[in-house]
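Input.
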Amino acid sequence: MDTHKKLSLAPAQLYVGQHNQAVLKTEKFLQEMLCKNNACNTCINCMQIREKQHHAIMWLHPEKNYTIDQFDDLFATLSFQLQPNEHFFFIIQKADFLTPSCANKLLKPMEEPPEGYHFILLAERTEQILPTIISRCIVHTLTTTTPTHNSHPLFECFTTKTVSSDQFAKIIDSANINERES
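Output.
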């Protein structure tokens, strides 16, 4: 990693925007940080990043809301000292699903992580994240050209379409959303 990249690398960052867009932005950022070929998108490092299999990255994704035990591996990993100039990234997807107890447990490591460790949080809504978490992050707001809620099939059911209960049940099943999103 060159000196310019190291200087621009913050201990904690928060990407706010549509989830898929935030994941792609994160993957691109990680490729820029970890690829020896200038984020070539074709080498083994770039492929492992896209497949979420890279050895220097831990991806966390909640089922519903996060629970404390989902962070056991993160805290265990933080106990290891990295080699000089080595970097490790924790990607906390759907950070707006952090419970207050989980968020509070992350405060200290996010503010003063051991040398070489970095946190990247992805969220669609900042109002669901504790202000103390946001204050420890460099916030990047991702813009989107299409409002996702207006094109969602459920949005149409409640605004423009009239559907039977059977049709509504099929739409719910095919929408593949969790409790919180519904």
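Residues 19-34 form the longest helix (16 residues).
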